[in-house]
From TrEMBL:
Annotated membrane topology: Single-pass membrane protein
Gene Ontology molecular functions: protein transmembrane transporter activity
Family in the record: Belongs to the TatB family.
Alphabetical list of InterPro entries matching this protein: TatA/B/E, TatB
Organism: Inhella proteolytica
One record GO biological process: protein transport by the Tat complex
Stated name of the protein: Sec-independent protein translocase protein TatB
Entry keyword set: Cell inner membrane, Cell membrane, Membrane, Protein transport, Translocation, Transmembrane, Transmembrane helix, Transport
Signal peptide region: none
Pfam families: TatA_B_E
Residue ranges of the region described as Disordered: 88-110
HAMAP family documented for this protein: TatB (MF_00237)
Length: 145
């Protein structure tokens, strides 16, 4: 682009001071700064728009690839379903005498449920695990002499 070094900028500043004059130079410099800022913002906006359009194109390509893959999967699923339906209709199966196991409702025995509780949980919550008589409990909690 332009190769503006410090010496060239100083020369432009001296020429601008002579041509424009010291009274109007700050106003002209401010105006030039505003215009330069607007130009930079415009260039940044154009770059962002180009990037957005490129990303949109990439997303559209990915969308079309995804739709093609979904169509392939759908086609293979349709083939499997038709094969299954044909096999089902012909009455063939891998296990000819297959029948589901009969349903047994869960047993409602509280002892079994209580015994399935882990020991660490019982200890933490203070659940008694052994039967103790009243006299044994009193003896256990009696203060020592």
């Amino acid at each position: 682009m332009l190769d503006l070094g410090l010496d060239k900028l100083a020369m432009i500043g001296v020429v601008a001071l002579i041509v424009i004059g010291p009274e109007r130079l700050p106003k002209v410099a401010r105006t030039a700064g505003h215009l330069l800022g607007k130009a930079r913002r415009y260039v940044a906006d154009v770059k962002a728009e180009v990037n957005r359009s490129m990303e949109l194109d990439e997303l559209n390509k990915m969308k079309s690839q995804f739709q093609e893959a979904a169509a392939e999967v759908s086609g293979s699923l349709n083939e499997v379903q038709t094969t299954f339906n044909e096999t089902w209709a012909s009455g063939e199966s891998a296990e000819p005498n297959w029948s589901p196991a009969p349903y047994k409702p869960p047993r409602k025995n509280w002892r079994i449920r209580r015994s399935n509780t882990p020991v660490w949980f019982k200890q933490r919550n203070g659940v008694r695990r052994h039967v103790q008589s009243g006299a044994a409990r009193v003896a256990r909690h009696r203060p020592r002499r």
